[in-house]
Amino acid sequence: MKINLFIKYACTNCGLCFKSDKKINFKENIISKLNDKDFINYCPGIGINRKKIILDTKNSTALFGNLVSNYVGYSKNKTQRETSSSGGVLTEIVCYLLENKIVDAVCVPMPTDETEVNHSYKFCNLNNLKEIRKYAQSIYVKIPAYGIVEKIKKFNGKLAFIGLPDQISSLRVISFQQNFQNKIKFFLGPMVGILMEKEVINMVKILSSSRNKILKLRWRYGEWPGKLLVKFKDKELSIDKFYYNYLLPFFCSNESLVQDDFYNELADISIGDAWLPEYENIGKGWSLIQSKTYKGDKLLRDMIKKKKISLEKINDRKALRMHEHMIDFKKRGSKYRKKILNFFSIPTPKDYGFKLKYSYIRYSIELFILSVIFICKTKLARYLMSKINQKILGLLFSKLRIIWKTLTKNIKRKGLYDNF
Prior knowledge:
It contains 18 helices and 13 strands. The chain is of the alpha+beta class.
């Protein structure tokens, strides 16, 4: 294996193979693990067979993974709902677990200072409730869980772990390997489409034309769907969520191109935005919530009884319609992209998903997507992008995105609903 290519294209930087959060040579750490059979089984960059991890669930589908029920809802804490990215349900669950002493602490990414530019994993307890609510937001760059395994093993009490799909999958495997699965009572996390490389934060500063340090960074500030808000001493940058999406092709992480778990399949509860016009027109913030296990579903129903959240049960087809473009991108498109990358001797995670009937026209679409992204990620393309007015670029990207989805819809949606 070409280790540099593995680190660049396959490794998700989940952070779980690091024994400490102290600075360590990334490459040397990976090399030291490659002959470790346990590492091979839990590394999302090599590929995790999620089918081998048996959870107490109703069923498992090709697109959703483990699933008990689909819901649409929101936090009944009005302030939380209107200041969170998508209804505030995940934050409400975390606070409920702590307030009712169901867990002793929650392992969750928290900002390292008031600017919210950088985050790291922290064990939060009842004393941190105000911080948890204050700093609740979507974060579009990866927060590695460096050294978290050793900290969990040393922790005396019950935990809830908040993580991305690769982190939860990996920690599920590790917890069984090292026999501490009973310490983690709940796995919770967001649904994840495309993450951006951390260099995007430097680009945001360049776009602002400010020479001052960032005083505050919120990826989705204000009422749903929110805006990118960056505050400096001398100015403030604010861009609508759907407009700053133009940054995605320029800073899309390689992980996002080859990982296929959108719904956080091994979580007990996963949460995303409820993208349908009937909810978008109302505003205020709506979540798509999936209970992946029976204990996750029971927790949600208990919270309904306590009037902490409002939930409406929906069917699978309605849930899929909310994210059908991204589901196709992750579940089916990733299979094509991995084959294309493998053709050029670029390592990618092993595919344990459903079998797919490949087509030449879809190969051409995914090759085009990869080519555009790789070109956009060059230094020259990023430089040229920074010289264009971001509002104009945002509007242009939104229009082109709609045109692209319309042109490819029939090809990319064909047979999607057959995979239940």
